Amino acid sequence: MIENNQVPLVKVAMPPRNTLLPCLESVLYSGMIAEGEHVYNFEAAFSRHFKLDNILATSSGTAALHIAMLLAGVNSGDEVITTSMTAEPTNTTILQVGAIPIFADVDALTGNLDPEAVELLITDKTKAICVVHYAGYPANLTRLRAIADKHGIKLIEDCAHALGAFYATSPIGTIGDFAIFSFQAIKHITTIDGGALIMKDSSRVDEAKRLRWFGLAKGVPRTEVDIKKLGFKYNMNNVAATIGLQQLIGVNSLLDRHRSNGQFFDNALQGITGLTPSKIERGAEPTYWLYTLLAEDSDAVESCLNSNGISASKLHRPNHLHSIFEPYRRPLPGLEAFYQRLVHIPCGWWVTDEDRGRIVSLLRKG
Question: Which stretches of the chain are DSSP H helices?
């Protein structure tokens, strides 16, 4: 609960009550609340809206990532080159399939994977590169795609922060072999919990559907199905999909406000001593899930903003600092430099013109 009218760093977005609740009531009492037509309608609508093909709605972004790892052929003992600068599920999922997370360094100005650091870590055990578009800022996909192709490995885009972003005029999620989105509570849109898997190769869709549902084929009588490969309980349900369908109605204005606020800060925070807006890759169009600011004294910036009613923090902890990842630690000087300077400030749909003006004023005053 936000106290004292604090401007929050993240906030749940919900469709208008008068449109959402009748739709929820209808599905809740329809007798069909598990995976069904609402889920398939949401998949189709999401695909049309964001120009993403071969989509599978899942129970979470983490579930989608697990399926992506399996489809990429990642098995026990394999290596996945990844980033430590992310939410933990990106990398606990690698452990879940029995693989080894190989932490590559990041660009100290973006927090995203440094392609040169990635290529140096490729071995004959490398099966995939998992790239996170941190805070909604697209990573250098041109270089990462080229590296993956050169070495014959899969590129997985973790787009949990980057709904609606673009890279080189292409929708985010279309450049990797696989991509995942998250509809967890505080993302750009939410289905309470949920996610989506995107596959470049349409021939993998049926396999993915079986992985989503215990290894079973939907629509076939249960007395006739045959499980040939282990699957999971990763399907989205009709209730979550109903929320998702309503979210899509207003998603453009929501994303536009994130972009508007982010671009405002990009311009207004230039030239302030001790502060630097995060670098944006050439050809990238962020959706600013969080605004990323780099400060010479990040602790002082956080303290100043928080004491004046503006939530500010680093939000995430680099994953390699967790005990579970201790065996995989390596020097990451770029990440260390990025994290030391990192401050996230609010830039979402709830940030008003007055709020963002006050944030800039506070930062200018130091």
Answer: 17-28, 37-50, 61-71, 89-96, 115-120, 141-151, 205-212, 238-268, 298-307, 333-341, 353-365
pLDDT digit string, tens, across residues 272-302? 999 999 999 999 999 999 999 999 999 999 9
Sign of CA dihedral 265, 269, 274, 276: positive
Strand arrangement, sheet containing 275-277: 275-277, 291-295, 342-345
> What three-state secondary structure class fits 233?
strand
Q: How confident is residue 344, by pLDDT bands cut at 50, 70 and 90? A: very high
Phi-psi region of 206 (alpha: psi -120 to 50; beta: other; left: phi over 0): alpha
Helix (H) or strand (E) holding 318: none
The SS3 assignment for 219 reads: coil
342: helix, strand or coil: strand
Q: What is the pLDDT of residue 222?
A: 86
The pLDDT-based confidence of 60 (bands split at 50, 70, 90) is very high
CA 263 to chain centre: 20
Residue 167 β-bridge partners: 170, 284
DSSP output for 48-107: HHHT--SEEEES-HHHHHHHHHHHTT--TT-EEEE-SSS-THHHHHHHHTT-EEEE--B-
Report d(CA 338, CA 277) in Å as an integer: 12
Tell me the chain's radius of gyration from C-alpha atoms. 21
The proportion of the chain whose per-residue pLDDT surpasses 90, expressed as a percent, equals: 96
- Structural domains in the chain? 17-246 (3.40.640.10), 251-365 (3.90.1150.10)
Q: Pinpoint the alpha helices (H) of 162-287.
A: 205-212, 238-268
